[in-house]
């Protein structure tokens, strides 16, 4: 099927008008599937939604939103629309509080998802001649099996190494000649450290050539550092378990925005307060409607993730719209002394200092009735923790740049490499000890 550098040229380069027609058709089909379920029959009746009434993308506006809370209150299978005989797998998000969110998939859903991931990987140059190693956990987390089936669909040799045990990961990379690797950004950094501790230079001594990087927010600066550490290109992958998992949107080789696959989802970017579309190109909350899922479609799902559409055509020839690098989730925003701050703003500044490592922690606490922010960051390999004059100057400069960016002055503390604890899975960058948190 693949040709001219596209996994599915017809779909990937489809004329916008045809793509929109396809979206309307698929939305109508999804309504057909959903209308007989007790839950949706009521929702649709209230909003006068019938398959016949879906005539253009405008009709999506008549659908109510779906939230994480809706998924939780129908836990586990309340929103499954096919008989359970047709369900072959469930995935869930980690859900630190309350019920996790669960998504059920039919075999067709899983096949479509594998296609979606294969399309992403092919786009950045992965081929069936590649050896693909996946460092994601292979459990309910979608980064494991999601990539596994996508890479198999592509025809690559897959190495389902799963999470952890960096020395073993490196042994596999060396012995199997791994060429493509998938990791979350915080683990990519850790892996690079272990490479260098073992005296292996991943740039020269491995066959690695492509890095798939995703599942957690990271700044452009962090991506560039990872690219330098490994000497390869790293591509941003966005996904969430509610929308299958990895592969919802993926950067092409232009590395200027992530193509969101519009034959799978209808993306909207809305003002999180008014829930009206933001002007083209402005930041808002990403809202997604699945249009080729049968077991558990979701209409206008509020992701809480903040991004914007990148206006204009992509030189790669794909017509699916591009999303800008994610700024974080609306619930990641920290408000200190009335100032709204996203952790990624702090990361961007820190990563600009070559003297620093890549691990950092933001702590907020109330001290004598005042909200105080502390930014701890590990120093890099070429710095010494007892080199006071250098550290002092560096601390001053970091504080100054942070103040320019976030408009308040945090307490900056440089700490030794390895002293900030690393999370098992996705990185924890913020600890808020204030009473009301
Ligand atoms: P969990 O809820 O267990 O963390 P999910 O895979 O469902 O697992 O998490 C999805 C969330 O991860 C997204 O809603 C988004 O906030 C974040 N995320 C995923 N990929 C990216 C990315 N490339 N950039 C920024 N954030 C991302
Ligand atoms: Zn492109």
Short description:
With 437 residues, the chain is an alpha/beta fold. It has helices at 9-12, 16-34, 38-46, 68-73, 107-123, 142-154, 166-176, 185-197, 220-230, 343-351, 388-406, and strands spanning 87-92, 102-106, 131-134, 157-159, 180-183, 210-214, 233-239, 246-251, 258-260, 265-270, 284-290, 301-307, 309-310, 322-323, 328-329, 334-336, 339-341, 356-367, 370-379, 411-415, 430-432.
Describe this structure in words.
There is one protein chain. The chain has 437 residues and is an alpha/beta fold. The protein folds into two domains: 1-330, Rossmann fold (3-Layer(aba) Sandwich); 334-432, GMP Synthetase, Chain A, domain 3, CATH 3.30.300. 30% of the residues lie in helices and 24% in strands. The chain has eleven helices and 21 strands. It has helices spanning 9-12, 16-34, 38-46, 68-73, 107-123, 142-154, 166-176, 185-197, 220-230, 343-351, 388-406; strands at 87-92, 102-106, 131-134, 157-159, 180-183, 210-214, 233-239, 246-251, 258-260, 265-270, 284-290, 301-307, 309-310, 322-323, 328-329, 334-336, 339-341, 356-367, 370-379, 411-415, 430-432. The strands form five sheets. A nine-stranded mixed beta sheet has the order 4-3-5-6-7-8-9-14-13, with helices on both faces. Helix 5 packs across helix 6 (142-154), helix 7 crosses helix 8 and helix 9 packs across helix 10. The radius of gyration is 23 Å and the shape is globular. It starts with 8 loop residues before the first helix and ends in a 5-residue tail after the last strand. Bound molecules: adenosine-5'-diphosphate (ADP) and zinc ion. Adenosine-5'-diphosphate binds next to strand 7 and strand 12.
């Amino acid at each position: 099927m693949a040709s001219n550098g596209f996994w599915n040229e017809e779909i990937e380069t489809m004329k916008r008008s045809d793509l929109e027609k396809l979206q309307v058709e698929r939305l109508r089909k999804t309504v057909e599937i959903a209308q007989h379920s007790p839950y949706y029959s009521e929702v649709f009746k209230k909003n006068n939604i019938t398959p016949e009434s879906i005539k253009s993308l405008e009709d999506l506006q008549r659908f109510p939103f779906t939230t994480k809370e809706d998924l939780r209150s129908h836990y586990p299978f309340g929103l499954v629309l096919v008989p359970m005989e047709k369900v072959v797998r469930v995935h869930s998000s980690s859900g630190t509080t309350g019920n996790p969110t669960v998504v059920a998939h039919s075999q067709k859903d899983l096949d479509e998802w594998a296609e979606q991931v294969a399309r992403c990987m092919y786009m950045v140059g992965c081929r069936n001649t590649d050896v693909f190693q996946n460092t994601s956990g292979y459990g309910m987390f979608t980064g494991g099996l999601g990539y596994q089936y996508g890479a198999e669909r592509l025809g690559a040799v897959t190495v389902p190494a799963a999470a952890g045990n960096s020395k073993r990961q490196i042994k596999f990379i060396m012995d199997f000649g791994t060429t493509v690797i998938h990791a979350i950004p915080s683990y990519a950094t850790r892996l690079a450290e272990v490479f260098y501790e073992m005296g292996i230079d991943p740039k020269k001594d491995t066959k690695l050539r492509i890095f798939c990087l995703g599942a957690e927010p990271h700044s452009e600066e962090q991506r560039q550092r990872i690219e330098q550490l490994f000497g390869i290109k790293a591509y941003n992958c966005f996904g969430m378990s509610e929308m299958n998992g990895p592969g919802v949107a993926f950067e092409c080789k232009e590395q200027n925005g992530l193509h969101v696959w519009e034959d799978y989802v209808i993306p909207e970017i809305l003002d999180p307060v008014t829930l009206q579309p933001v002007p083209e190109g402005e930041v808002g909350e990403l809202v997604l409607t699945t249009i080729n899922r049968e077991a558990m479609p979701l209409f206008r799902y509020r992701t809480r993730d903040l991004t914007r559409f990148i206006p204009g055509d992509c030189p790669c020839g794909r017509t699916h719209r591009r999303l800008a690098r994610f700024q974080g989730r609306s619930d990641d925003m920290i408000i200190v002394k009335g100032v709204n701050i996203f952790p990624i703003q702090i990361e961007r500044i820190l990563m600009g200092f070559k003297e620093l490592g890549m691990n950092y922690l933001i702590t907020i606490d109330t001290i004598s009735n005042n909200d105080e922010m502390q930014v701890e960051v590990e120093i890099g390999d070429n710095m010494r923790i007892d080199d006071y004059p250098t550290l002092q100057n560096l601390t001053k400069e970091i504080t100054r740049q942070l103040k320019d960016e976030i408009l308040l002055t945090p307490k900056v503390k440089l700490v030794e490499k390895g002293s900030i604890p690393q999370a098992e899975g996705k990185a924890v960058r913020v600890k808020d000890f204030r009473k009301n948190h």
